[in-house]
Design brief:
The complex is a heterodimer of chains A (about 120) and B (about 120). Chain A is mainly β and about 120 residues long. In chain A, about 0% of the residues lie in helices and about 45% in strands. Classes of the chains: A mainly beta (about 120), B mainly beta (about 120).
């Protein structure tokens, strides 16, 4: 079956430009997560979506970052006015919801973002 | 709040030797713990998980981990290393605090090198 799909796989853009990163989760997974992986900070949680509930945005590093999830499926992470420190690999993961937190998350291959 | 510490950012073993990757966690509630592996330019792949059933957990590719509450540890082992095991390994705990989103809190990762 299809796994988590992310696009683009690589993105190079100039400082100050806006970027959109896309995540298509595994069908039937109601929970969707975005993480950022960078050399200095390791793997960091960014945002969490669960069904029609309000997302948990507690990990977003600044108001330049936003995300939406349409129809409970595809998600888009948008970074406005990109800065060099935004350069990282952005990983998306999905899972079945388990209020206890025991369900494993399935990860996409990520989008490698480079800000010039 | 939960946290994870991986001891040793880099571990080197000979092919056929025992692999031991260390992980200690901090959690005020019974944790859900995971080990993930990441190969170059790929996302994270689940190796195994602990969700309060058996304390010795067997995963894919011959890996296993033992949950030791008294030591707050969840070390990953494999009896005999293979060249294909060379990768980065992440230990993670699931957030089951007040937000209960299931977001993962990762250790800093351990790079495993396997020498022929």
């Amino acid at each position: 079956g299809a796994g988590v799909s992310q696009s683009p796989s690589n993105k190079v853009t100039e400082k100050g430009k806006d970027v959109e990163l896309r995540c298509d989760p595994i069908s039937g997974h109601t929970a969707l997560y975005w993480y950022r992986q960078s050399l200095g900070q390791g793997l960091e949680f960014l945002i969490y979506f669960q069904g029609n509930s309000a997302p948990d945005k507690s990990g977003l590093p600044s108001d330049r970052f936003s995300a939406e999830r349409t129809g409970g499926s595809v998600s888009t992470l948008t970074i406005q006015r990109t800065q060099q420190e935004d350069s990282a690999v952005y990983l998306c993961a999905s899972s079945y919801i388990d209020r206890g937190g025991g369900q494993p998350q399935h990860f996409g291959d990520g989008t490698r973002l480079s800000i010039l | 709040a939960q946290s994870v510490t991986q001891l040793g950012s880099h571990v080197s073993v000979s092919e056929g030797a025992l692999v031991l990757l260390r992980c200690n966690y901090s959690s005020s509630v019974p944790p859900y713990l995971f080990w993930y592996v990441q190969y170059p330019n790929q996302g994270l792949q689940l190796l195994l998980k602990y969700t309060s059933a058996a304390t010795l957990v067997k995963g894919i590719n011959g890996f296993e981990a033992e949950f030791k509450k008294s030591e707050t540890s969840f070390h990953l082992t494999k009896p005999s290393a293979h060249m294909s095991d060379a990768a980065e390994y992440f230990c993670a705990v699931s957030d089951v605090g007040s937000s209960n989103t299931g977001k993962l809190i990762f250790g800093q990762g351990t790079t495993l090198q396997v020498k022929p």
